[in-house]
Amino acid sequence: MIHNRWLVNSALLSIAFIWGITFVVVQEAISTIDPFSFNFLRFGLAAVLIFFFLFFTQKEKFSLKTLITEFKIGSFLGLLLFLGYALQTFSLLHTTSGKSGFLTGLAVALVPIISYFILRQKPTFQGIIGVLLAVFGLYLLAFTGMTGVNIGDLLALLCSFAFGLQMVFTGKFASQASVLYLVLSQLITVSVLSGIFALIFEPTLSLTILSHPSVIIALLITSIFATAYAYIAQTFFQKSTSPSKVALIFSMEPVFAALADYLWNGTTLGTRSIFGCLLILFGMLLAEIPFSKYFPFLKIKNQKVNM
């Protein structure tokens, strides 16, 4: 366990940053390649990278027995992760990207609730306020209007629940498992399930699609940084913090995505979106900065909240 809180938070924030800035790259790639096929290749390549890293750097310690043991937990986490991506993909067929983005982002609010029932972790008053600010910020940033609730909205909400469960159970199992083996088994599961869904729902991949520059660039960037690094870092550093704080830090992803969209595509942010970004940022900081240390009168309010 790492006790340097700023190191832990910076590492987790780097994941949100990578996921956010690669959103534009992925969006461009899936205009050429179908999403399940893309995830099959993305997670498959990341799994291959981790496998060879394990094999060549830990030749004497490399153990298929350990991999099989960790696969029980890793496949469960991989199933949750796959469900999150699959439900998000299907939700976009029936609802707007704004509504899907907002409802998916509600994982930040669901994680403290799930953590209470599964890990028996009670949220702090400061943490609850931070979550509420982040949720309202997500609403301003992603939600553009109510056009009636449909099946896509329900799928997006289920997607946020799947991602929330993945974060909570990663926190539960990370300290009991070998990080690299756990992540490897998780990525293999996502890749295999994505491949099965690609065969069922998508046309056969062609060499023309696979050799398209946007697809190659997106696969290289996402498999190395947004998948292999991101999930190793999440699993390793989540040992040292709570799932609720991880969810709050990850709520910065759409902020970085909006910034990347502005820098890459020149998409301008309105006052509402900028204010939403600031609320998400402040919500994250509020949950992390020890205000009670500098303002002693807050100590009573910041005790664990009974649920």
UniProtKB/TrEMBL annotation:
Pfam families: EamA. The keyword Mitochondrion does not apply. InterPro entries: Diverse_Substrate_Transporter (IPR051258), EamA_dom (IPR000620), EmrE-like (IPR037185). Keywords: Cell membrane, Membrane, Transmembrane, Transmembrane helix. Signal peptide: none annotated. It is found in: Cell membrane. GO terms for cellular component: plasma membrane. Its main location: membrane. The chain crosses the membrane at residues 7-30, 36-56, 76-94, 100-119, 126-145, 151-169, 181-201, 213-234, 246-264, 270-291. Residues 11-142, 151-286 form the EamA domain. SUPFAM superfamilies: Multidrug resistance efflux transporter EmrE. Coiled coil: none annotated. It is a multi-pass membrane protein. Belongs to the EamA transporter family. PANTHER family: EAMA DOMAIN-CONTAINING PROTEIN, OS03G0707200 PROTEIN-RELATED. This is DMT family transporter. The lineage of its organism: Bacteria, Bacillati, Bacillota, Bacilli, Bacillales.
